[in-house]
TrEMBL record:
Main location: membrane
Gene: ATP6V0A2
The keyword Protein biosynthesis belongs to this UniProt entry's keyword annotation: no
Function description: Essential component of the vacuolar proton pump (V-ATPase), a multimeric enzyme that catalyzes the translocation of protons across the membranes. Required for assembly and activity of the V-ATPase.
This protein's name: V-type proton ATPase subunit a
GO molecular function per UniProt: ATPase binding; proton-transporting ATPase activity, rotational mechanism
Source organism (scientific name): Equus asinus
Topological category with respect to the lipid bilayer: Multi-pass membrane protein
Record-level GO cellular component terms: acrosomal vesicle; focal adhesion; perinuclear region of cytoplasm; plasma membrane; vacuolar proton-transporting V-type ATPase, V0 domain
UniProt similarity note: Belongs to the V-ATPase 116 kDa subunit family.
Segment forming the signal sequence: none
A GO BP entry: intracellular iron ion homeostasis
Amino acid sequence: MGSLFRSETMCLAQLFLQSGTAYECLSALGEKGLVQFRDLNQNVSSFQRKFVGEVKRCEELERILAYLVQEINRADIPLPEGDTSPPAPPLKQVLEMQEQLQKLEVELREVTKNKEKLRKNLLELIEYTHMLRVTRTFVKRNVEFEPTYEEFPALENDSLLDYSSMQRLGAKLGFVSGLISQGKVEAFEKMLWRVCKGYTILTYAELDEPLEDPETGEVIKWYVFLISFWGEQIGYKVKKICDCYHCHIYPYPNTAEERREIQEGLNTRIQDLYTVLHKTEDYLRQVLCKAAESVYSRVIQVKKMKAIYHMLNMCSFDVTNKCLIAEVWCPEADLHALRCALEEGSRESGATIPSFMNIIPTKETPPTLIRTNKFTEGFQNIVDAYGVGSYREVNPALFTIVTFPFLFAVMFGDFGHGFVMFLFALLLVLNENHPRLSQSQEIMRMFFNGRYILLLMGLFSVYTGLIYNDCFSKSVNLFGSGWNVSAMYGAAHAPSEREKMVLWNDSVVRHNRVLQLDPSIPGVFRGPYPLGIDPIWNLATNRLTFLNSFKMKMSVILGIIHMTFGVILGIFNHLHFRKKFNIYLVSIPELLFMLCIFGHLIFMIVYKWLLYSAETSRVAPSILIEFINMFLFPTSETNGLYPGQEHVQRLLLVVTALSVPVLFLGKPLFLLWLHNGRSCFGVSRSGYTLVRKDSEEEVSLLGSQDIEEGNHQMEDGCREVTCEEFNFGEILMTQVIHSIEYCLGCISNTASYLRLWALSLAHAQLSDVLWAMLMRVGLRVDTTYGVLLLLPVIALFAVLTIFILLIMEGLSAFLHAIRLH
């Protein structure tokens, strides 16, 4: 509790580590997470430090492990992640682990390279077989598919590309065949025509199935082409164009016999490559499976080893270079564990001279350490999102455990929705040890990490839902309504009483669509509902007006209490740091400014609730008008809420006006008076003091020993506030900015708390609309088809309730609750 209310008490310790035991000692310290190191080599670059070589070795190991993880993931091999975190490897095993990883990397790269080469050869041979199959149809094409030319009558019965026909033309014919991607065919054809001036014949056809590109591995559509040309110069140009368009060129057989031999050889080689490739993949998978068993633990070990060497680089050597000196911040409660860790590290290394520690006094501000558990971690993260508090300040996370889910529930008040959220969070809490939840996707993992926040948010929403009497937009009559309708009839009263009352009869009930209950009639209002809002308001036409008034005033009251509580927490900080002048000159004027204006507003709200009843409600004054008149000083007399209200309000305004200059000038003038050597009261502090960067009063330590409680404490405490450079202008400007921000913030933040009312109203109305558009329609259908229609209506209602009212509205209320904190 003490650690949660304030951060841990810290001390600065100096560690003396023998060179041979430093690694083991820091490993033991890191496993326990006891200390935070200070960098004693800030003026030395990272490349000139003692253990930079070891850090580079760790980075090399990280690179190898990253390559292994990449290959394992590529092979779809699951990585076994253990629950335990292995310690950093001993120095004796580091070289052995490095050799194993380097050998494994070389082997994997060689096997992978051979596999890729075999795969590329296989794809090329497959392309070659498809090319031979398709180009066979080009050469043996029948004459009926070819154009006939009158100028060559002797060739009309021969194929255009037959060798004997070309030889009778006396030309030297050449062929280029291969594959080209589908998107390049049109440009390729145009380029051939323009460059070769029509001295080529291009024939192409699309493959039936897409093939994998041997270079990129992408599966695309291919076209097989065959180019016939005359002359060596044309052939040279054709080959250049094919290279330009990245065509896959394969040798074209000259005869049918040669084509058949090539086809048979290709089939044999493809079968052999399939066999070799399968064996290579099996061997590669075996190697990766064996590596996957230990890669997770080795990644953690290398990270820890790298962290140890980073910490060793922060240490300094003594004059003999045989001992490392480190300075660490450590909680005072963990000093014994720190000594035990040093002894354990020395014992593991087998050193004859143990490492030891020494506590040293310091003037610096220690870091803030707040211990958390799985319950408080989520709330602490919300507070830390705005900034980590200074050392030994009051930790707001303790109070956020209550205020955050409560303010959320005020905006999300619905018994049914809160109960669903509570059940979901309870399911996560009960199964929190399940490994799939902690390793799930990002959104689900976010819900899992905030499971205890969701649990309290749902629980508080159940409470506020009972107060609002809202359960899926419907009221629940648990204790019976406090209103009696039968008392409005004339038969329930004596004849003498009927003349003074406006009662109902059969004619009034039959001819009026809206009936009004009069609580001043005896027996109509029998008392307030035991818990929350009376369920009869769910039937009233002025229900929204009544709830708006109630929730708006409740939001203002909660907001002012919340802001006042924050100022009171600041008083605890001033008392702890023995700066009582901040209480008198800052905190008390802030409370007076807040309470004299908005505290009086709360008083008027509560006073009106208690003083006026149903009989006197018509003559009750408006709180808004009375609050405005507090600042305008009207000339005409008003009734007011209570006798002497005008004098009380003027007194409160005078106190408010006097607190503003004290808030602006009190602290700067006091510090100036203190700087000039005057005696002071209540500012002493023993040990180290809180030092803030760019603070208006930087303080320093007087000496290594604590100041004793006594008469001289007052004199020494005055000197604490004096600093080396006292800048009155800076202090005054800082205080003026803080005061203006506070005064304006009191007004703007009070208005900002009205979002409690607005979000609660929006949630209730949206829930009501969803019920009216779905459930009411489904329940009004006749019994014949009602059951069949009701099931999908209920399913749709449940889906929309979860996604709109629980997730979207819940996220909106969650963000607004964060804003109010």
